[in-house]
């Protein structure tokens, strides 16, 4: 029978390192060093408040700040924790090594570990949100630039993967902009949701600590005091936070799938950046794979996978159970680091992606003129042709185009039934691309403002 | 080999009936009658706008309103759809039967089916949100009433299911109030997210219809025009909407689990309402089961199950594919109807639930006075006893209580080491419940305002 | 404050009707009539076993079978339930109306409601599994037929949506066959998992009923006795069952996505069946949408959405709580009905789908011969050309094809560096499609047997 | 605008380290060293097979084995990959540094990267499965031992958290045994599902490599050749694998929740191991928290969170896209490492958990004798008392017990209506615990065999 011993079992208390798809600023938020630094600030500010309230001596509060510039020694804290079996006590012990045991003796007075842990976690999530907000702003900038650049680049709009009516590449970028702008707004709401702190004691009654300590600490850390906490900050806030990350990730997938479709060999209307000059890849220019956006598709699944566990975390038993903790040790770093990486990668892809307008026109004309068949059908009925007859006229010409790739307009012009109803000029007009792009400016004004 | 025939296969186009856990007002939103009524309004308002723009004759627009008071015949529309194989065309055909074929000939001009379907779906979700908002307001009222009623009803706070420090039942209700108040705010945001409409044509370019038609229709239906749509309204909105429902559901589970715990035979601090006078159930008064809150626990899982499919719906191909549709036909009604039912059931449970204050005191004193051991420990160290000695003193007395259920205070008063450090009055003071409840008013003021 | 009253709240006890995407045989399994019929059989067989054991009189057991051919009156049972507030009691009361109150008085003796409900649910799931197994067998037949039909129909294989090397359409069907054959095997395992029954009393101790009653009932219903139950059959079985449905659904999505890709306007290598002769759709032959497979994509999401709730159902409190029940009332019918419908729809799509071999060749030659560039590169290095030089030779010719759509083979034959290393015949051989299809028979033998 | 540069972006190609909740043997499976070792074996065995087939020279195949005992230098391979931007090429380059460039020149001939990557991944998952199978066997051993130990330890069975009828602690362990035994069987199936390999080339046609190479490599690695692969091994296998992990995790949660309930202050029928002698924790003996099982509850959520992404991975585009890859880089290690840790932790908890039989009896008698009220009710009606009267008699005595905690049996014996129907001996007999435990041996025989 196996036994759980230090030798065969590692429970990592320090925040996890996730060196897969990550960027250093976000990773740094989840480092043990950052965590201990935040713990320090919580404790030090709490001491200040307690000194203000006359609960502890002023000099003891001031003494704590001697550790202001200390980079806490993670290995040393781990060492102490191996003995104390308690992460916060280990930290406090180490802090006392810097501050002096005597001077430090009022640190953490009346507080419970969760006061530190939960407030710290929300500081980390708030900082993570700040990075994600910046990521979204960067992405929006790239999307806007590409939207303006390709405002009038005509391509076929597709429903069901099938050619429908013309649209423009700029509208595609613009709708991604609008979607990500909504995500920016959601992310800001999510940040506000999570920017709370609690210093309220073992069951949230402030029995051993004055509520004004909480107010002071939160104020200093840029947080709002949690109006009512138990031992913990209520987890509906975190559920809403991670749900928002899941929505943002789904939008990333949306853009990624569009680009993957554009890069298909048969479509080739766009591609992740590559340089023809490069050796290697260019030996097989047709074999340039959209691996970045495929990767983003997978990363979106992973960010989404945090949503349900975060929701399952809401129903804690009574004033708290600790089932949420292992979940958050994983999804806290994993979901934010992955989403940060994904947003930055997407920004880079959007920023540099290749657009092939000629191919767009070629695709649109795969069955020359056929995408205009609906307009012609409508024009015929409006010109007084019965619905049945109009169908028949359009159908017989459309089938020629479908089967022989002849030109639909030429076929129509050669069909006496059609020309009996519509003049050549009228037929010609139905093939005007400007008809489809006439409101692009209106839409751009809606999305980007005037 | 089986063949899909009308005989062995029913694809129900009409909104589903879900007669499981449902309430009629929410069910009505998803009825075919409601849907056709909304379709009618969209088409009729669109005609008005087109008449205003001079695109269609005024009299044709006015003629459509002849059907203003018609209750559309769902069976007849189904009959037509069996021929046309297209739900919107079937409806339009039926509408023409009321309006007159000639008068109706401009109805839907320049529009695409999705203009009607998507705008209608958002009207339905918006109305569903209105009911859910009302549900939350009702729940908040019940929670507030119970919170005030039990503001000072002392019970033991528990972390990990283990007795920690005293709190009050009112604080429990108050934190549920605060949580549901956040949910109310989230639900209002979700409503705003989803209250958009689109009348923008086959790929969202307004090629065949003026944007002012969209503006007019949205205005009349209480919606905001979607700034940029494709053939469809972007699905990140819906993902955010259903994610919010999932958060609300998780909070329902949170309250449900608390009540289920309270009603456990060994705890019995509260219970779903039952009357002792009733025949039957009262034959076994100990066997009153928290079936309503257990049911809510399950319903929460179901509402949450809509979240991931809604997020998977975001990444549609190009200007739309229809993969989202079957998902939404199910989760649209299912998630809103279930959540409405769950909120109403929870309100009823909260409103009527039995609270047993005597049992709360009895539970708190299962090991008499032992929940105060931490305060005593702190007091001893503050009185100058070393940490080791303080532990020893507390431990030896606590173990007596643990093993023999004697009274902790009495044991302390009889321990000369303890009384050497603390006076009887000081010891007595550590067992004062008022110490733990002194900030309840502060917290209530934070939650409910002054 | 709203109150839950019969007027404003409907808790449907009868199995739900889900008339969305459904087929009648599967729907019938979940009808109230079927449920009551199964309940009857459980009770009647239990009486037989109790009579065999001498626990109840033989004539009472025999009397129960008077209801053998009764179609139970659902409305009447609902009426009784409105009074008794208990579904099983309502049924037993109604049963007694058929059997006679005196004769029926030993029915259900020593049993608990869950004995009936859980055993019935597993009978329903087992029957649902039988239909799904048949569905899979039908699908396999269609896939095999299409695989054999298109064993040698060459198309380009694609990785990342980009042309890679040639393969055949038959291999595509064959791999779907192999995947669905694994699903058939999983489905059979899932059926075995769920084909258990329990008649073990209030907490599973058989205190009031002999285990031999359980054995007899299970034997008659084609079930295996659950080795150890509590009040309920353990829910890990159901979690495994619904997880299997989720895997099958994901495979449906896999095939659906392939077909959707094939039908894209630019690809057009296949399509869901449509007839050119049809009026209407053929007016715009280019606008035939893969709506069935898009629908399947959405349905797959819905079947998958049952997996997590089913897993959350496993951790019931002690000997049971009833949180699983509302979940199962929904996912039981929903997931099986939807999957049955989806499998049948997929079979129909596969059976009738159009395959366009000419377009496959045309697509493969979009950049004429370029898909063979890797073979040429390899051949050059094998002929002693350095890796750098080989790259250069291939690259300069490939770029011409990429840019001007000239023929790659012709370019190579005109390149003296290439022809210095490879003879014309050798070059020619690199473009032989047979090279790529030479092991198709081997693979078919693996998949379909010899 | 941020740019993705080596400086600000780390895409870790090497298998991730997840030092959270982990054990070294499982972590080792996912180390870069293990991965490269498996890659080496795949390549070396493939060379052997190719030499056997006469495709490459025997001496080159033999030369590869010079690296048999090499521990591959991960840093060096990373260094090469920084240049080549391709993990497999980097490895092959490094391998050539050991084998000699000339000798190594046939390594990987005709193979595609996925042949190596996918086969390696399945080797890793198979080995992970082996550990998980061993974990389950260890857990079963602990559960069986505790079941036998407490076969006759009577405790109250609970439905809805409410006292129902007596059962035994041994039955609780026995049902967990049966559940985990089913999981063992599922895990073995999952292992068989995933133990396949593929060496089939760019699109799975074996165009450039003989199928016998695949057979040889698989044979040597303990795998079965994948009957039909594309560029990748089909992902329904992986979906089924991770779904199984999700079911196992849900069963862990089931046991964890039971133990958490047992340890509640008010219940206290069992507890995670702690020693009263310990300093610290024993100062507050009532405050021993079930943190290990709470942790397991959270870990179960995390393992389950891999299920949906794994299912979303099934629908790859055509012969493969790489969206699955980032998902698997995370869930491969995360889910298996977490589940391994959780199983081992659970085994330790079960093995050492404290059981408090006296408290079980005390709890059962919270309302003395009341749990027998249903038996008494039944006995009264069987003795000829009408159902109404029987209810009345039981109810009036039960209410006394409920309100005053008197003894139910004593109340009954003092009630003349009751004693008119039942003799004292008959009443006495209804309180015999043996009535409830008489079939425990039968159930144990079913679960553990005779």
Automatic annotation (TrEMBL), chains A, B, C, D:
Biological process, per Gene Ontology: 'de novo' AMP biosynthetic process; 'de novo' IMP biosynthetic process
SUPFAM superfamilies per the UniProt record, alphabetical: L-aspartase-like (SSF48557)
Pfam families: ADSL_C (PF10397), Lyase_1 (PF00206)
Keyword entries, A-Z: Coiled coil, Lyase, Purine biosynthesis
UniProt keyword annotation of DNA damage present: no
Enzyme class: lyase
GO cellular component, one term: cytosol
EC number of the protein: 4.3.2.2
Span of domain Adenylosuccinate lyase C-terminal: 368-448
The protein's annotated pathway: Purine metabolism; AMP biosynthesis via de novo pathway; AMP from IMP: step 2/2; Purine metabolism; IMP biosynthesis via de novo pathway; 5-amino-1-(5-phospho-D-ribosyl)imidazole-4-carboxamide from 5-amino-1-(5-phospho-D-ribosyl)imidazole-4-carboxylate: step 2/2
Sample GO molecular function, one term: (S)-2-(5-amino-1-(5-phospho-D-ribosyl)imidazole-4-carboxamido) succinate lyase (fumarate-forming) activity
Coiled coil, from the record: 126-153
Catalytic activity annotation: N(6)-(1,2-dicarboxyethyl)-AMP = fumarate + AMP; (2S)-2-[5-amino-1-(5-phospho-beta-D-ribosyl)imidazole-4-carboxamido]succinate = 5-amino-1-(5-phospho-beta-D-ribosyl)imidazole-4-carboxamide + fumarate
Domain of life, source organism: Bacteria
Entry similarity comment: Belongs to the lyase 1 family. Adenylosuccinate lyase subfamily.
Stated name of the protein: Adenylosuccinate lyase
Organism: Dinoroseobacter shibae (strain DSM 16493 / NCIMB 14021 / DFL 12)
Taxonomic path: Bacteria, Pseudomonadati, Pseudomonadota, Alphaproteobacteria, Rhodobacterales
